Amino acid sequence: MATSIPNGVPDSVAGRAPGRWFGPNWRARGARMLAFVTLAAFAVFCAFPFYWMLVTTFKDVHDLINTANNPFLFNQPPTLENLRVLFHDTLYLRWLLNTLLVGVLVVLITLVLAVPAGYSLARLSGRHGRQLAIAIFLTYLIPPTILFIPFSRIIGTLGLQDSLWSLVLVYPGFTVPFCTWLMMGFFKAVPRDIEEAAMMDGLSRFGAFLKVVVPLSSAGILTVVIFTLTLVMQEFVYALTFITSSSQYTVSVGVPTFLVRGDVYFWGSLMGACLIVSVPVAVLYNLFLDRFVAGFTVGALK
After folding, report:
1. CA 214, 219, 225 angle in degrees (round to 5)?
2. Which residues have C-beta within 8 Å of that of residue 91, sequence separation ≥ 6?
3. Angstrom distances, CA of residue 134 to CA of 45, 128, 141, 160
4. Confidence at residue 300, expressed as pLDDT on a 0 to 100 scale
5. Distance between CA atoms of residues 218 and 292, nearest Å
6. CA–CA distance, 248 with 242 (Å, rounded to integer)
7. How many angstroms separate the CA atoms of 132 and 124, rounded?
8. What is the pLDDT of residue 168?
9. Which of 60-82 are b and which e, b meaning 16 or more Cβ less than 10 Å from the residue's Cβ?
10. Contact 238, 144 (CB under 8 A)
11. Which residues are listed as membrane-spanning (predicted)?
12. Distance (Å, rounded) from C-alpha 211 to C-alpha 194?
């Protein structure tokens, strides 16, 4: 004859195995499981473009154009033909070097101008300092198309047409205002007492700035570097207009110009070019993600 177990009797007393999911911590376990599922879905969503580029890079042309094939898998053996077209039939390596050269020079110019300017505005008290900071930031909001004609006149007067130096001259006009505003917010987060203590120990103001303030602001400086490099790599309009020789192209112009011919798209080579450029940037973002987020959010904290 079956016996009933009274309600409210603990599982251990009633002879049942203790509940694993419906114990006292079932809410915490459910929250962790939900967080894990959400993060896993987000990770798959973020990694899918890289997977798509990787698969497309090594797919055969017939595998790509056959709509009956599964686009997410290799229906035919992988091939290196797309990479051969990219590296042998185009000047892709030269475009990479051009982009790297312009990026490094623009980063250096931006740091030389934006870091001291941001520090000066952060330490400039009063209404005029705030107004000047807002005016500098507003210049970043001006659409690039409005500045196209004056920049063209400057480039023509200086004789820099079809030269990478034209991009080195123009790009800081977009990076310096925003990076100055960014560094200003970061320098405001550094207490003045630290500088004053360093100056009491014998350092000059410039020495305290270099040895105390700059190391504490490394997250902001790293943000400036990443932002500037990203802008140089993706800018298209000015690079297309000021540069006419294929040997002087950057990646953002050379790849679509030579791998899109009329209505013919070299999808495998296009995805290979994008993959080679995007992977280092993605690795850089992930290695310094905490500092990068801090650089953009420090100005929002008081």
Report:
1. 95
2. 246, 247, 249, 254, 258
3. 37, 10, 11, 32
4. 46
5. 10
6. 10
7. 10
8. 93
9. beebbeeeebeeeeeeeeebeeb
10. yes
11. 33-54, 95-120, 132-152, 164-187, 208-232, 264-288
12. 11
Contact 112, 275 (CB under 8 A): no
Helices (runs of H) and strands (runs of E) counted in the chain: 17, 2
Q: Are 260 and 266 in contact (CB under 8 A)?
A: yes
**CA dihedral sign, ordered 155, 156, 161, 165:** negative
Residue 240's nearest CA partner among 136, 166, 132 is 166
Q: Which two tokens stand for residue 112?
A: 């030389």
Residue type, 146: I
163: left (phi over 0), alpha (psi -120 to 50) or beta: beta
SS3 126: coil
Give the separation between CA 58 and CA 78, rounded to whole angstroms: 5
pTM more than 0.90? no
Residues 6 or more apart in contact with residue 170 via CB below 8 angstroms: 151, 155, 238, 242
- pLDDT one-digit tens code per residue, 27-66: 788 888 888 899 999 989 988 989 999 999 999 888 888 8
C-alpha to C-alpha distance for 202 and 205, rounded to whole angstroms: 10
How far is residue 232's CA from residue 105's CA, in Å, rounded to a whole number? 10
Gyration radius (Cα) of the chain, Å: 28
Neighbours of 143 (CB within 10 A): 7
The amino acid sitting at 249 is Y
Q: Which of 131, 111, 108 is nearest to 121 (CA)?
A: 131
Distance CA 155, CA 168 (A): 11
